[in-house]
Design brief:
By secondary structure, this protein is mostly beta strands. It is built from two helices and 26 strands. The strands form seven sheets. The protein has a four-stranded antiparallel sheet, with no helix packed on it. Strands 5-6-7-8 form a four-stranded antiparallel sheet, with no helix packed on it. Strand 2 and strand 3 form a beta hairpin. The protein starts with a helix and ends in a 20-residue tail after the last strand.
């Protein structure tokens, strides 16, 4: 028995010393899953339940949008509109640390560079740019800043909003469809080199209602793509989230509309909790005063929960779990004396 107590005590002491070492060296610390999002014109992070909100950028001149966690959670890629008054003409791709420090600029153009998405190895970003004269998809190697165009070389239509698959082999993106009048768009997939471009659903026909499919996001298992669809009919439009299995069936999420109605706009959506839920920003159109707020929807439980209730616009969310590189500044320290002791 004394030997057993000694073993427990030895393990407790080693655990205590290891934790102290991690704290003192500022090493990567395992924290709760995090949501990064845009709060009006800046970038913030918070916990899954909406608590512990923290602003990472503070700018009166620039506007920040479309933040994306790096695969290891240590950095955030985002779009910076250098001048709030020119958000329709110029923007650049930046990367900063997960605590908001050391922002670095990766594109230098008098055009729009937006919607960054990381490669799984964290070495490249795929993004949308107007540098070729219209919306197209490009990839940049972070070490060399080398930019390669992936779409638009042989097509006569534009592309946007790319998202890299978890295995690094494919990229999903929005493809505009040539049609007189309003130009609809749908979701395509291509190889990471820009080859074999193909739709995940058949393109809308000439007699179909105008259809717009936005914001494709790969599931963590790489088997499904989440996107948002809006169809315009004579008596109004119909909006819904769709989960499309690659080479398989289509799941249309309709109960969100059953609860919230159909008079809303979406500003970004992503998977969370290892494909068990989705996270999205929604704004009601039938209210005199309305702001974008973040919502969580459970795919298995069909539970819908509003995460934010601030009088501000919270948009373009991205979710990650695991170890994040966070600064200890402003965090609650662990009371080591409260660590559970072994039972005797």
């Amino acid at each position: 028995m004394n030997s057993l107590k000694t073993t427990h005590l030895s393990k407790t002491i080693r655990f205590f010393l290891s934790c102290c070492l991690l704290w003192l060296t500022g090493a990567t610390t395992s924290v709760d899953a995090k949501i990064v999002f845009c709060l009006d014109g800046d970038i913030c992070v918070m916990n899954d339940d909406g608590s512990r909100r923290r602003r990472l950028t503070h700018s009166t001149q620039a506007t920040h949008r479309y933040p994306r966690w790096s695969p290891d959670g240590t950095q955030i890629a985002f779009t910076r509109y250098m001048d709030r008054t020119q958000t329709q003409t110029t923007s650049e791709i930046f990367i900063m640390n997960a605590d908001g420090t050391d922002p670095q600029r990766f594109t230098y153009n008098n055009v729009i560079d937006v919607y960054p998405s990381w490669s799984p190895d964290g070495h490249s970003l795929v993004f949308t740019s107007t540098r070729s004269g219209r919306w197209e998809v490009f990839v940049i190697e972070l070490a060399t800043h080398t930019v390669t165009q992936l779409t638009g070389e042989d097509e006569d239509t534009a592309s946007a909003s790319p998202d890299w698959s978890p295995d690094g082999r494919q990229i999903a993106f929005e493809r505009f469809i040539r049609k007189p009048g309003i130009v609809p768009k749908t979701i395509y997939v291509m190889s990471a080199e820009g080859q074999h471009q193909r739709p995940v659903l058949p393109d809308p026909g000439p007699n179909d209602p105008s259809t717009f499919r936005y914001f494709p996001r790969w599931s963590a298992d790489g088997q499904r793509i989440l996107f948002y669809e809006s169809k315009w009919f004579r008596d109004g439009d119909v909006k819904r989230f769709i989960v499309q299995r690659i080479g398989g069936g289509t799941h249309k999420i309709t109960d969100i509309n059953d609860r919230l109605g159909n008079h809303f706009l979406i500003a970004g959506a992503c998977w969370m909790e290892q494909d068990r839920a989705i996270l999205f920003a929604l704004k009601f159109l039938d209210k005199s005063i309305s702001h974008y707020n973040l919502y969580r929807y459970g795919l298995e439980t069909q539970g819908l929960r509003r995460l934010t209730r601030e009088p501000s616009d919270e948009k373009w969310p991205d979710w990650i779990e695991g170890s994040l590189a966070v600064s200890p500044h402003g965090k609650l320290t662990t009371l080591w004396g409260e660590i559970k002791q072994p039972e005797h």
